[in-house]
Model the fold of this input.
Amino acid sequence: MEESEIDPPKHPPAHRLDAIAAGDSDAGASAHVESCEACALYVGRLREQSVRFRAENDARAFVARAAARRGREPARSRVLRVAWAMGPVLAVALLLLVRARPHEGALAPAATSERTGRASGPGEGRFKGGLVVVVVREREGAQQRFAGPLQVRAGDRLRVEVSTDRDGPVAAGLLTDEGEWVQLFAPSALEAGTHYSDRAARFDDSPTRATLLVGDPAAVDRARRTRDFGGVVAWRVTSEFRP
Amino acid sequence: MPLTPEEAALLYEKYGFFLLRRCRTLLRDTASADDALQQAFERILRSGGAVKQASAPLRWLYRVVDRCCYDVLRSRRRSVESVQSDELGETAHPSVDIEARDAALKLLGMMTEQEMQIAVLLFVEGMSQGEIADEVGVSRVTANKKVQALRARAEQYLGRAS
Done:
């Protein structure tokens, strides 16, 4: 059966009608609009609204704001490019992470994580500095959100979601008990809002012992070097099944 | 190929209303919509030169803003509880069932990117299944199945499932 018989196009799609309302020429759509009351009404309303919008909005000022925003991007973009360029290195680091051997003494959730308030919602951890951290674990197509230590098994993917209520620098990654670092969130200046990690960590069936670190890049770097997790979010990530 | 600020300003002047309306329709949040549109223009300034050769510039620009909105929706990864038509979203395409559209928009954040794209083409653009198949690059049979599934999800959300 032809889909067009099930669902015949009654009117031109919105982008063509909108373009007419914006002043573009489209002979076919215009002919339809002339003979269709509903489309004529739609186009007429949009035309009126867009004229009002043009009178009330300064295009040059808007573009200047976008350009200024663009001017702030290069530092972050460079960092991201470096992160992507280092993909093979990170892949090796990830391999080392998932092959890390267990340390029985490191099983407890990091007591030094700076969690200062109640979770703001299911699967969200709120921290000092207006930082809300969520770990998203993808397993067999389903996503589960965590606000603390979590377990993984073969095939799982982890990403970090960071929400901030102010602009500020953030970094995140997994530090294995052997000291390998797998970067998930390249150090960057984030604008207020919600951000997803640049990279995801995928796990195989080797035992995993690591700590997820999230926070100010300098504090994360210090935590990596000293293993003192004060001042950063530090959650344990361990294997679900022990060998 | 980049676009000069003057060229971008001309685009905004002509199409800014439509692009902002699109962002607000998809995101249902004025602040996020404004932000997504700025992001879109940031991309356009950086590498939007191709729009000058586009036979349908608004369609080209919609693809850019849609992508920026999908990024925002992906980061939300949840359904939006309160979706209300604002002044920019009241004028829906004549083919679109507004209730089903609003239900689908509430669920956008929980969809895959392809589902988001199909939902927008179906419920916002008012495209037929054949047009959706061409736009997304899938067979008509696949488009038909995905459209039926999306409609069923919207109907279920509305409690209209039979």
In short: Chain A has seven helices and eleven strands. Residues 1-6, 73-86, 98-123 of chain A have pLDDT under 50 and may be disordered.
